């Protein structure tokens, strides 16, 4: 067994969330979590927070910054959408199509897979209207549009923009390492087809801290500012990342698939966690508890932390944090 695998296997992840039905704990979700103090020191570490993980879409701020470093000029809603896992709502789809048109691109050039809206309510409305899976609807289409746009600007190959050795992806790789303060441990393929850089949870928290503390006008700060100013374009109207960035001004927040979450507060406090079994239903309760431990006290924590369980259409339990 490789040394890194042996080290990770020796740490039994703690239970971060419990599933409680009718007063009975029927399930438990294990994972790892790190909290950084305002000065960047590790304040709390649960589980192995130094082992590499795939942050999935929590890497998107770094990918968006990479596009800016490569030379593309984006601001406002467009830059927020470049860092998004959007819900597929009408305003998301409309802006993706507008951005493609602005850069002389077409939806057919996107290499993210055709998909349905990420938001369940939007998905029902979309299907009821007789719509089908579409690349523009896929939650990563804003990121892919920005990547294609900078390749067109620089004269780089469009058809291979997702190749890890593509000039754009080499820039993104460097941005991830610089923000995380550690080398990328592995490169995989994300659900959207883009290269996916593995870093530790501590590195992920450091990256978010670096973005909110970056000097004004730098690509990193521009991404953070755009996401915080336009959170509905980063997520959607019914998403926790949106609520958190709207109701806690200056906060940068981004979830990732397989139950990853990263947050940085404006003073440099930051956190990152991953639930081992990928249960995204735990994100809200664990995030609310982690923010509480970081010293946040705001009504939005009750909103994002609430995860009721139903029985016969009635509330009979909850998913709750266990740390």
Structure, described:
The protein is of the alpha+beta class and 323 residues long. 40% of the residues lie in helices and 20% in strands. The protein contains 13 helices and eleven strands. The chain has helices at residues 3-9, 60-69, 76-82, 90-102, 120-128, 141-154, 167-180, 201-213, 219-229, 231-234, 240-247, 283-293, 299-305, and strands spanning 15-21, 24-36, 42-46, 52-53, 186-189, 195-200, 252-256, 260-264, 270-275, 308-311, 314-321. Strands 1, 2, 3, 7, 8, 9, 10 and 11 form an eight-stranded antiparallel sheet that branches. Strand 5 and strand 6 (195-200) form a beta hairpin.
Shape: globular
The value of Rg in angstroms is 19 Å
Q: Average pLDDT, to the nearest integer? A: 96
H/I helix tally: 13
Strand content: 15-25%
End-to-end Cα distance, whole Å, is: 31 Å
- In helices, the fraction of residues equals 25-40%
Write down the secondary-structure element order: HEEEEHHHHHHEEHHHHEEEHHEE
Low-confidence stretches: 1-7
Number of β-strand runs: 11
Quick structural summary:
It contains 13 helices and 11 strands.
Write the layout of secondary structure elements.
Elements: H1 3-9, E1 15-21, E2 24-36, E3 42-46, E4 52-53, H2 60-69, H3 76-82, H4 90-102, H5 120-128, H6 141-154, H7 167-180, E5 186-189, E6 195-200, H8 201-213, H9 219-229, H10 231-234, H11 240-247, E7 252-256, E8 260-264, E9 270-275, H12 283-293, H13 299-305, E10 308-311, E11 314-321
Helix pairs in contact: 2-6, 2-7, 2-9, 3-6, 3-9, 4-6, 7-8, 8-9, 11-13, 12-13
